[in-house]
Amino acid sequence: MITTKLERAGTRRSDTVSVPAETVVVDHTVAELVERARALAIPGDRHILGITGAPGAGKSTLAAAIVEQLGPDLAVLVPMDGYHLANVVLHALGRRDRKGAHDTFDDAGYTHLLERLHRSRVAPGQPGADEIVYAPEFRREIEEPIGSALPVRPDVPLVVTEGNYLLLDRDTWPRARACVDEVWFLAPDEDLRHDRLIRRHEAFGKSPQDARQWALGTDQRNADLIAAGADRADLVVRIR
Length: 240
Description:
Keywords: Kinase, Transferase. InterPro entries: P-loop_NTPase. This is Nucleoside/nucleotide kinase family protein. One of its GO terms (molecular function) is kinase activity. The chain is α/β, with parallel strands linked by helices. The strands form two sheets. A seven-stranded mixed β-sheet has the order 1-2-9-8-3-7-4, sandwiched between helices. The longest helix is centred in the C-terminal third of the chain and has 14 residues, at 190-203. The chain has a single domain (5-239), classed as 3-Layer(aba) Sandwich (Rossmann fold), CATH 3.40.50. It contains eight helices and nine strands. Mean pLDDT is 88; it is low at 1-17.
């Protein structure tokens, strides 16, 4: 882990219900977090930054901001959501009604991708220096993953990956975590997180009643599991 002076500022005990009460939460701006990420983007090397937290915590927004501000020569975004199991598979397994739970992802596939990305930095002129790794992407408008949609060049030093279960201590998730140089856990206020979730579900077609039921039911059960691993993060952060 790369530690900076940012981590010493603005610390406080958690006053949200999204992480255990004794968890130290650090307040940062997006600009400060971008600079912390920049310290991992070392040309000629390869680091992986993981951003995790409960559904609606703001993972995708922060990850996209980091990659946009660092630029395509320094950073690329590879979300975990590309490893959602397809709906036809979830129906066959009887898990479609709780899509988003940890066992509705291809965790082994995601782990293999991170392991490949972790070792894929190759010096110019060496064998494999031109090899592009293609990662899948999740499309919310169709609620399905699309394979080989995200190219990762070997010369890009920072891979940013975001997803719910980077800190889960079962199945192949610990192997995925071992590939990640630094993991940040986002801990926004719960009212804000719930509001984001409900609005997201409504935006993608759920009725207000169904959106609220999903956010406070399936999503909340997943959130409780995810929050239990917050103490394994390198940084627990509330964005101010």
